[in-house]
Structure formats: C-alpha cells, structure tokens
Design brief:
The structure is a single chain. By secondary structure, the chain is of the alpha/beta class. It has one domain: P-loop containing nucleotide triphosphate hydrolases (Rossmann fold). 46% of the residues lie in helices and 13% in strands. Strands 3-4-2-5-1-6-7-8 form an eight-stranded mixed sheet, with helices on both faces. α10 links the parallel β7 and β8. The structure holds adenosine-5'-diphosphate (ADP) and magnesium ion. The site of magnesium ion has 6 residues, from α1.
C-alpha cells in the first residue's frame, strides 16, 4: 500500500528532517512510538525511514512487522555493504527500515570516524523524515546521534523511575553538547579556548548525583571570567530544545503535573526551555497491536494513537 512513499534507493543529498527518539529505559513505548510515528508520517505522504540505533534491545523491525533482517547497521559499519541504502528494508506499512542489532555501534572502541560516517550517511538519505530509535542509552555514541538530529524527543511515563531517567537523558545530552562546544561538528569551533574548555570540564565533573549544580553557575562564571564566550554558552542553551512526550498515561492530570514539573526543573537546573509535544495513553488496543506486530496507526488510522500523533506532529512542525 504505502510502498509508493518509500524513499528511493539513490544517494542524493537528503533535505529532510532527522528526528531522534530517546528517553527513559525499559519498556516505556519508545520503539512502538518510532514505528507508529513513521507509519503516520508515511500515511501523510512523507517519505520516511525508521532507524534502529538501540544498542541493548534492537527490536524496531518487529514493531514494523519485519521478522528477520537481511541487513543491519553493523553491515554498513563493517563495510560489508558500501552504502546506507543497501541496508534499507522496505516495509509493508510505508516507511523503509534500517534494522539494528549486532553490537558494533555499542562497542566502546568503535572508531570515531566510523560513527561519523554513519551519521553523515543517515543525513544523506533522500527522505522527508529519518527517525532514529536510540533506546534508553546514554553512551557518547548515542548522545551524538541525538545531538545531530534536527528535533530530539525524550519519552517518559508518569512513573518516577521513568521521568528521573528521562531527565537524566536530557542532562547528559546537554553536558555532551557542552563538551563538544568547540569540536569539529560545532559551529563555534573557530572560537576554541582552552580556559573555557577547562571551565566546562570543571562544571561537569563537579556535577554529581549528590551535588547537582545549576547551569546558571557556569553561565555566571563565564560572564565573569570569559565575557567574550559568555554569548556562546547562552546561544548553546537557547538552541538546545528537546521535546518531551509522555507515553502510556492513564490520567491527563498526572501528565500535566509531570510536564509542568519537568519544565520547571529543566529551567531551574539546566537553564533550558523544555518543550512538550503531547502524550499517548495506555490503551489495550495499542498493546494488542504491539503484540500482533502491526503498527496501531496502520490498523486504526483514526484510532487513539493516530489522534495523539496528529497533535504531536503539528507541534513538531510549529516548533
Ligand atoms: N501506549 C501504549 N499502550 C499500551 N501498551 C503500550 C503502549 N506503549 C507501549 N506499550 C507496551 O509496552 C511494550 C514495550 O514497548 P517498547 O516500544 O518496546 O518500549 P521501549 O522501546 O521503550 O523499550 C510494548 O510491546 C507494548 O506492549
Ligand atoms: Mg525499544
């Protein structure tokens, strides 16, 4: 059916949007969300690719109704195949799939240039949307994909273990962004300054679970001792705009309370404006679809999941 919307197998420069889905660990609906968002965008006529970058539990293919993969990310990383399009699998629900698993991306010693190669290749895919399922990982390799995306989503449920984890994900990715302030991919690389790097390192290392420091401390410190670079940090913070999506909720007031708390904490501790794009309820029908390995929005294009995604995509497009 929606096969016609599958991206063409050619290696042109992609002009689409890269979306990365990260957040809390453990069965909160991230992969299900990626699969359904992919199918939903495809139903809108957008050429979409979903990519499984979950190091621990690569199973996105199952949610896309694909039982076994002929190719995966590792085949590209190990040069078994020459181009990223060689590892794309068509699916019957519209999006093309790049399946994960195998572990090379998670290997601590993966060569930096190889990770960059994958990232660059993902950015050249000729599609309207490339959606990355990052799992709940916070390794540098994964955070770098998150930071390279045009829009980052952070998923959480209303449970404390989940939202604390999601907040941790946001904080770690912001720290990673700070440490890459002058790195090769940064627009600020020509302003590289040793003292600023030391200030940032000092701030991050002294920021532990028992001693949580306010980002405003670093901003003030920069204002005092490195006024010329102060603007860069302010810009970096203003440009860091993750968006939360609450999954599997049972009561709307709990969602509102959680979102308002997460926004407040992010502003107070991290000096960032955390966006909120929407929520997906816990629904027996969604769970059943997940069990049947048929994306919910394919089964019910006007169902609860599709309605939730309509609002989320609208918010994303307005952001
Ligand atoms: N909105 C929802 N309503 C009902 N069940 C859900 C919902 N979202 C996720 N689930 C259930 O949670 C399971 C785990 O989801 P999954 O996407 O694999 O989580 P993650 O990728 O975060 O580990 C799904 O197989 C499904 O049974
Ligand atoms: Mg998953």
């Amino acid at each position: 059916m929606a096969q016609k919307n599958a991206p063409t197998k050619q290696n042109t420069t992609g002009s689409g949007k890269m979306i990365a889905i990260g957040g809390a660990k453990g069965g909160i609906g991230k992969s299900l969300f990626v699969a359904n968002l992919g199918v939903f965008l495809s139903q809108m006529g957008k050429r979409t690719v979903v990519v499984d970058l979950d190091l621990g539990g690569a199973n996105l293919h199952l949610f896309m109704g694909v039982w076994s993969l002929t190719h995966r990310i590792d085949d590209f990383l190990t040069l078994k195949v020459p181009t990223i399009t060689d590892i794309m699998t068509p699916t019957k629900y519209g999006p093309a799939l790049i399946g994960g698993g195998g572990g090379k991306l998670g290997a601590a010693n993966i060569h930096f240039s190889r990770k960059l190669k994958l990232l660059r290749a993902l950015k050249t895919i000729d599609a309207d949307y490339v959606i990355l399922d990052l799992g709940g990982n916070t390794t540098y390799n994964i955070l770098d994909f998150y930071l390279a995306a045009d829009q980052g989503f952070v998923l959480t449920t209303c449970e404390p273990a989940s939202y604390l984890d999601a907040y941790g994900f946001i904080k770690m990715s912001l720290h990673r962004k700070l440490t890459r302030l002058f790195a090769a991919e940064s627009t600020y690389r020509q302003f590289r300054d040793f003292e600023v790097e030391q200030l940032i390192k000092g701030f991050i290392f002294s920021n532990t679970s028992t001693n949580s420091r306010h980002m405003s401390d670093l901003v003030e410190q920069m204002e005092r001792s490195k006024p010329a670079h102060h603007r860069l940090i302010k810009e970096l913070l203003a440009g860091f705009r993750p968006a939360t999506v609450v999954t599997m909720f049972d009561a709307q007031d709990k969602v509102n309370e959680l979102v308002s708390r997460m926004k407040k904490v992010s502003e107070k501790m991290l000096s960032i404006d955390l966006k909120y794009f929407g929520c997906v309820p816990f629904e027996k029908q969604i769970q059943k679809s997940a069990n049947d390995l048929v994306p919910s929005v394919a089964k019910e294009p006007d169902g609860v999941f599709a309605k939730a995604l309509r609002r989320i995509v609208l918010k994303m497009e307005m952001a």
